[in-house]
Amino acid sequence: MEPLNIQVQCLREGAIVPRYMTECAAGMDLFACLDVSLRLAPGERSLVPTGIALAIPAGFEGQVRPRSGLALKKGLTLVNSPGTVDADYRGEIGVIMINHGAEEVIITPGDRIAQIVVAPVRRAVLTISESLEDTPRSCGGFGHTGS
User: Fold this and answer.
1) Domain 7-120, what fold?
2) For residue 69, what are the contacts with CB-CB under 8 A and spacing of at least 6?
3) CA 90 to CA 112: how far, in whole Å?
4) Contact call for residues 32 and 107 (beta carbons, < 8 A)
5) 3-state SS, one letter per residue, for 21-89
6) What is the pLDDT of residues 34-93, one digit of tens each?
7) Each residue of 116-134: pLDDT tens digit?
8) How far apart are CA 135 and CA 131, in angstroms?
9) Domain residue spans in the chain?
């Protein structure tokens, strides 16, 4: 498959360009662009800057997702996951992080804090209808099939 060309702009000194850490990685790691380390107490959340902006082409989005290692080892994850970077957004990408762990977490400049997956987007056209086609599931939701 042909790679998608995306322009990246470094907005601040210390910004690190996102990159794939392995050959088959789905997401590129995003890095904290901080002047000083950030302390997150248990239950605390903060917007962590990356120092970069992306020119994602129309028809695509950037999905900002947690890093599984941070979630498992430190209880650190994202408040809105996945966060969406729209194709027409050109501002700095910020990552809303939260500490769900029992201990304070320190995020230092250059830390890998999240990942971004570039995915295609298909726009929908909604049509008002008096009823919807029935399915075997119908209105069942929120765990109706078991745990």
Assistant:
1) Deoxyuridine 5'-Triphosphate Nucleotidohydrolase; Chain A (2.70.40)
2) none
3) 21
4) yes
5) CCCCCCCEEEECCCCCCEEECCCCEEEEECCEEEECCCCEEEEEECCHHHHHHHCEEECCCCEEECCCC
6) 999 999 999 999 999 999 999 999 999 999 999 999 999 999 999 999 999 999 999 999
7) 999 999 999 999 999 999 9
8) 12
9) 7-120
